[in-house]
Write a structure and sequence with these properties.
heterodimer; A: about 260 residues; alpha/beta; Rossmann fold; 9 helices; about 35% helix; B: about 260 residues; mainly alpha; 11 helices; about 0% strand
Chain lengths: ~260, ~260
């Protein structure tokens, strides 16, 4: 569904992504993992066309995205920090998005809207909202148009445990429906039961892209968080031993 | 196209700056016409306001508006909307509301007191200057990442076109006063929309007789239908080219 070929991105002199290649299919839930500044958000923004690649190409359903925009109709995006026109009320933002997408009201997914009981606060202007409430709005907007692809950048950051649980369940429902879901998160426990695949980025390079069971097996760990810790450790101890796409953790087994 | 521009329009109307600007123009024009017994003289005073205040307000307002609508732009980028459409909608919303403010604030008094060809010429050049400075403002804002820097550059732009360029031109004419410079100065004024507008308007007024021999040569040119056409084409180019450059830059930008 999405194919990335030799993607490079540099911001002036700083190389943020170096030769990233990967392909994502419908039904996969890909956890994008990596330390701060490893290029996760840049990768996501490149897929959305917000960041323009320095080299390489991204294909959506085998079409190069270039300056296309229609393909974004099939993507729901939840940004890390959702920013909205300050003066608009929640209800106005929702109405505006529906107006711009031009989709019939019947096709709107209201699950999260109802679960978060937004109707009760719909009259509030965006600038008066707390960070967590903004996150809820971002989540609702991402799922609202039943997109084939969901891109969630740190979806649970700032959400209270209850809201976070609601969102996780929603992601699980969409996973059952065979959507392609890309998630970045630092809260690895969140990803444990969601992710089918792990893509590990380090300093803008794909260090590892494999299915979750494979990674657990290779690292000899039972939980994703432990496995990732092992990967990270291996990475910092001897980067050279990690081959592209191969999630070897030989160094770890010595420790 | 106008679906997005409509939201920009709402946003601008809500901020009330444009409404205050309309009221200011209305008050000034009305009082000038009231104070001067000769409405031709009032038009001359009005001309100076139009040549200085209108570009200043337009360029600063458009620049600030661009930076303030960054959230809106960001929100639209993840939607199936082309970048050209996003920027053009912003432009149409901004330039449209400023032109409307000008036409209301200056247009109504002119229609009441001076509904002549000269009055129309004044309205025409004022509107053109508004959309030209908006284009320049957009070009500056798209290029400068920071708000403070963008506003600074916009102010410099205004200084250059409204004050500095004239001085430079005068210096040039003085230095080369031994040569016949009429054609050259005509060409050089075309490189500054405010200058071109000034000369065009001056020659519509009767005071051009005071401008001596050079004034007479200008009068021959600008007094004719060709002069009008020439002014219109050059001013239009001044509106289109910076806007086109801004769109080109915006389409390639990382946002």
């Amino acid at each position: 569904m999405i194919r990335i070929e030799h993607l490079h991105k540099r911001f002036s002199k700083l190389a943020v992504l170096t030769d990233v290649s990967a392909s994502f299919r419908a039904g996969q839930v890909i956890a994008l993992i990596g330390p701060n500044g490893s290029g996760k958000t840049t990768l996501i923004k490149s897929i959305l066309g917000m960041v323009k690649p320095s080299a390489g190409q991204i294909y959506f359903n085998d079409q190069p995205i270039g300056e296309q925009f229609e393909y974004r109709r099939q993507i729901g995006y939840m940004p890390q920090i959702g920013r909205y026109p300050d003066h608009m009320k929640i209800s106005q933002v929702m109405a505006m998005m529906q107006n711009i997408r031009n989709q019939p009201a019947a096709a709107i997914d209201e699950d999260l809207y109802l679960a978060y009981d937004i109707a009760a606060i719909a009259h509030k202007p965006m600038h008066s909202l707390s960070g967590g409430t903004r996150q809820k709005i971002s989540a609702i907007l991402a799922f609202m148009f039943r997109p084939e692809v969901l891109i969630l950048d740190e979806p649970t950051a700032g959400l209270d445990p209850l809201a976070s649980e609601i969102l996780r369940n929603k992601i699980l429902v969409e996973k059952q429906r065979g959507r392609l879901i890309l998630i970045t998160s630092h809260i690895l426990n969140d990803l444990d039961e969601l992710a089918t695949d792990i893509l590990y980025l380090h300093e803008g390079q794909v260090k590892c892209y494999d299915t979750l069971p494979n990674i657990l097996q290779q690292t000899g760990q039972a939980k994703l968080s432990k496995a990732i810790a092992a990967l990270m450790q291996a990475q910092s101890h001897s980067p050279a031993k990690m081959q592209n796409g191969q999630c070897t953790t030989k160094t770890v087994s010595h420790v | 196209m106008f679906k997005l521009a409509k939201y920009v329009w709402y946003d601008i109307l809500r901020s009330k700056v444009v409404i205050a600007y309309t009221a200011f123009l209305l008050t000034v024009s009305m009082s000038l016409f009231q104070l001067e017994a000769d409405s031709g003289k009032a038009l001359l005073s009005l001309l100076n306001i139009i040549l200085l205040i209108v570009p200043l307000v337009s360029i600063i307002f458009a620049t600030i508006h661009y930076y303030n609508s960054y959230e809106f732009i960001e929100l639209m980028l993840s939607q199936p909307v082309s970048r050209t459409r996003i920027l053009l909608s912003e432009y149409v919303g901004t330039a449209g509301s400023l032109t409307a403010a000008f036409l209301l604030g200056v247009g109504i008094p002119v229609l009441i007191y001076q509904p002549t060809a000269t009055g129309m010429a004044l309205l025409f050049t004022g509107s053109m200057l508004t959309i030209i400075t908006c284009s320049l403002a957009f070009l500056v804002s798209v290029k400068a990442r920071e708000k403070a820097r963008g506003i600074g550059a916009a102010l410099l732009c205004w200084f250059y076109f409204a004050l500095l360029y004239d001085g430079l031109l005068l210096l040039l004419i003085f230095t080369f006063s031994d040569y016949p410079l009429e054609k050259v100065t005509l060409l050089l004024t075309s490189l500054n929309p405010i200058d071109l507008a000034r000369i065009f308007l001056m020659l519509q007024l009767d005071i051009s007789a005071l401008m001596g021999y050079t004034g007479a040569t200008y009068k021959v040119f600008f007094g004719s239908g060709w002069g009008l056409l020439y002014t219109a084409v050059i001013l239009l180019a001044w509106a289109m080219i910076p806007l086109w450059m801004a769109i080109r830059r915006f389409r390639r930008k990382d946002l």
